[in-house]
Write a structure and sequence with these properties.
homodimer, about 160 residues, alpha+beta, globular
Chain lengths: ~160, ~160
């Protein structure tokens, strides 16, 4: 709390040099693991290797010189105006301060600026993801669909959904 | 019907030279369009450019020298044993002869050989996809989840699901 009050939060699109800091946040999230980091690393590299208007977008959250959270999002292929929040993550020590909420709101603003019609979020049904699900619900998302045992036995896919614009 | 009876159906993994025939099937499907063909072309190219054990798999259906259908499938990242049937398509003149069913069954056999636990299929709720949905249901898939207006207004995402093994 002190830190956030003392130094103001800044959000800005990621730069290529933020790669290691983003992976650091993910790997210290106490939620995501090595396989997730591989996936995020690949998505990050693809963003810079093959820039395209419908590619992944990365937003970073900073307190002073420290990258403390990020979001990755973008348009879903083969849809008309449906966007996907692929990743959102804040370092544990900086949670409960509205940083996740600020990232999510900024993502929604950017997507609406691009005339997005819907935003969807794919997430897990397990207790570890309860804070994330609460964040989505507080931002107006509804769980509209659930795919049983999608991630592994006992771990369903929950699809959160919100109209935009 | 004559053709299928006269020349027996052969299924085999795609080879790199099948690219144009696969796109031909897709573009003459009367279901898929140019955006789908771009997506399939990219997935096909990625399969050969970056071969990996968990990459896309392609199965082709042949009557004599003619490629008349194909399927594309593979493991879903970040899941434990969930596989996805990304594409399945048969040329209109060759439908109703069990070719789609044969492709789908062969996909299920291959996935089970790789210890897949679940297979999911993402498809559209619109009338154009009714034959595809019937095919999935006949093969034991159930629509477990529906995301409203995912593809466009009036066009929901239906998620079909089947346990394997």
């Amino acid at each position: 709390m002190d830190r956030f009050a003392a130094r103001s939060l800044a959000l800005r699109p990621a730069q290529r040099r933020d790669r290691e800091d983003i992976l650091h946040v993910l790997l210290h999230s106490e939620v995501f693991g090595l396989a997730d980091a591989d996936c995020v690393g690949e998505m990050f590299d693809e963003t810079w290797a093959k820039p395209r208007p419908d590619g992944y977008r990365w937003l970073t959250a900073w307190l002073g010189q420290s990258l403390v959270g990020f979001a990755c999002y973008g348009a879903e292929a083969l849809t008309q105006g449906t966007w996907d929040l692929f990743w959102i993550c804040v370092l544990p020590n900086y949670r409960g301060q509205g940083i996740g909420r600020a990232l999510l709101e900024a993502v929604l603003v950017d997507a609406q600026r691009e005339s997005a019609r819907l935003m969807v979020i794919y997430t897990s049904s397990t207790p570890a993801y309860a804070p994330a699900r609460s964040l989505y619900e507080a931002a107006g998302f509804v769980c509209v669909a659930r795919v049983p045992e999608y991630y592994r036995p006992g771990d369903d896919l929950c699809i959160y959904w919100r109209r935009l614009g």
